[in-house]
Each structure stands twice: as C-alpha cells, then as structure tokens.
Write a sequence for this structure.
C-alpha cells in the first residue's frame, strides 16, 4: 500500500539541529566573573619595623654594609666616618660593637675604641649568639650595630653547614624583641670579595668598593654586581667613573639601585640610567685602564708646610 508523500509531515530542513546546538553550547566556556586580580600592598606598622627616617642617598639605619678593599684602601677611615660622625649614623645606634683582631693595633681605631660600647679581638659563634640574645632581651627600641672588621677570611666554615654569620644575615632585619624588630645593623669589611658568601651578597643593602684590585678579583666583582649598569662592561665603566681622585670609592646602593662616586656624585641609577651619556657599542673598557699593573713613582711636591702623618687628617675629620 502506497501513501502519497505529504511535505507537511516532513522535518523542516531550515531549522537548527537541536542536538548539534546543545553540543556546541557545551564546548563554550562559561563566562568568567569579573574578579579583582591586582596585588595590593600590606599595611604595616612602621613603628614596629623601626627603620628610622630616610637618610637618602645613604642606606637606612637598619642595613648590611659590605666594604671591600685591600690594605691602605681607606676601609678603616670610612668606618670611622660612617659610625662616629653625626653626619652619618652615629646617633642611630644605642649600642655599637666592634669585632676586630687588629682593633688595638691600628692607630686609626683610637676613637672607635673610645666611643664603641664593646670591643672584641676574637670572633666565635658563641660570642655572636650572646650578642643576639642581648639584643632580643633589650626591651627598648634602641638599635645595635655590629662591625665585623676583616674577620670573614679568618673564620673556619664547615662544609655543608651554614655558618653563624650567614645565618644571622638572612634574618638580621627582623632581629628584635616582641614589640619591635629592626634592632640590628651589620657592617662587614674584607680585603677579598671572594670571602663574601652568596647569602651575604644577596642580602646586602650597599657595597663600598675601595682602592684598586687585580684583574681576576675585578672580574669577580663585576660579574656579581653587574646589575649595576646592566652588564659587566657597564659595571667597569661605573668603577672607572668613580675613580677621579686618590681615595675615591664606589658606593653601590642596592636599596636605591644607584651607583655613585663617593656619596655625592650619581653615576648611574636604575630609574634614570646614566647621569652622563654612555655608548654601549664603544670600545670596551680594559681592566688595565682601571687596575694598576705596577707601582707608579710620583714626584714629590716641594713644600715648606709641616707634613701631616698618614691617616691623621682623617681621624681629625671624624672627631666632631
């Protein structure tokens, strides 16, 4: 039996396939809700941090200073100025401690011996622990300063074990009592950059690079501190520009990301770049341009004035 084809009983071929549409809708991701994904700063009680007022371009009072320089480079003179003069950090510490095997052998330390609260000629981890316990038991907001003078190279470190100095450096900013942290500042002086641990380099607030160095040592310094300037060659240029007169030093502020000749003259900053134009494609600065290969004999100037003993002028400048 045959039935005549009735178009009205057939499907409407122009309609969408409901099954296909449902499958496509399943694949479409749901519209994500608008969310606030910004990172906001945390409100912190500045009194608890105990950082003190800004001393820009200097470091803040709670700092780790690393001073690198060979003998007669001016390290002791710098330390005397930084921590005995009111122009710098004298009034920022309630207790000042010097640990130096040559504390009583160097005439320039005279005023530090007179004004510092504690002088130790031998370093031990037990001594360092005792000092930290003293700081933690102090109930006030007064800060402590520890100067570790040329002892890093003499400390015997156990392989695979974090030494007490490195351990302290990782947490020095938070050393304090129950109410206040930021009660400790550290200054480390050394003749050799290689003696500075990776932990110390990563936590330094500022570097003072004093005097001149052999080429091998200068390469290590430029490689480690090449974030000043943006490369090894650029760092060498910073070093070169910071050496215009005898006893100039390079001040490298990690806190402010600035490089200066002494404290006064800005050479480079992360924010502003080079203070004076610098061409990356110009001839590379040679290490021989900044590192003396042999002593240079200078003619003595004739003078009728009375000679001033070496170092005396600096000591008089500190005592205010």
């Amino acid at each position: 039996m045959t039935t005549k084809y009735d178009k009205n009983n057939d499907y409407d071929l122009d309609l969408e396939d409901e099954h296909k549409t449902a499958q496509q809708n399943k694949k479409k991701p749901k519209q994500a809700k608008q969310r606030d994904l910004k990172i906001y700063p945390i409100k912190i009680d500045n009194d608890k941090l105990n950082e003190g007022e800004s001393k820009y371009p200097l470091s803040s009072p709670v700092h780790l200073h690393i001073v690198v320089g060979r003998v007669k480079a001016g390290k002791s003179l710098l330390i005397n100025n930084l921590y005995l003069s009111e122009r710098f950090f004298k009034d920022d510490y309630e207790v000042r401690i010097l640990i130096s095997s040559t504390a009583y052998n160097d005439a320039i330390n005279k005023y530090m011996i007179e004004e510092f609260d504690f002088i130790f000629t031998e370093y031990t981890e037990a001594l360092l622990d005792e000092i930290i316990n003293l700081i933690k038991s102090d109930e006030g907001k007064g800060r402590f300063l520890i100067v570790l003078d040329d002892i890093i190279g003499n400390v015997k470190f156990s392989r695979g074990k974090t030494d007490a100095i490195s351990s302290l450096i990782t947490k020095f900013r938070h050393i304090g009592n129950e109410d206040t942290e930021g009660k400790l500042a550290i200054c480390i002086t050394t003749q050799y950059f290689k003696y500075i641990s990776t932990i110390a380099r990563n936590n330094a607030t500022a570097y003072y690079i004093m005097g001149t160095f052999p080429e091998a040592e200068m390469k290590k310094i430029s490689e480690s501190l090449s974030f000043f300037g943006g490369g090894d060659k650029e760092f060498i240029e910073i070093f070169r520009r910071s050496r215009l007169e005898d006893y100039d030093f390079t001040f490298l502020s990690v806190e402010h990301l600035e490089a200066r000749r002494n404290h006064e003259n800005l050479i480079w900053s992360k924010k502003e770049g080079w203070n004076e134009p610098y061409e990356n494609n110009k001839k590379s600065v040679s290490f021989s341009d900044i590192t003396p290969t042999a002593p240079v004999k200078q003619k003595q100037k004739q003078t009728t004035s009375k000679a001033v003993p070496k170092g005396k002028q600096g000591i008089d400048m500190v005592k205010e």
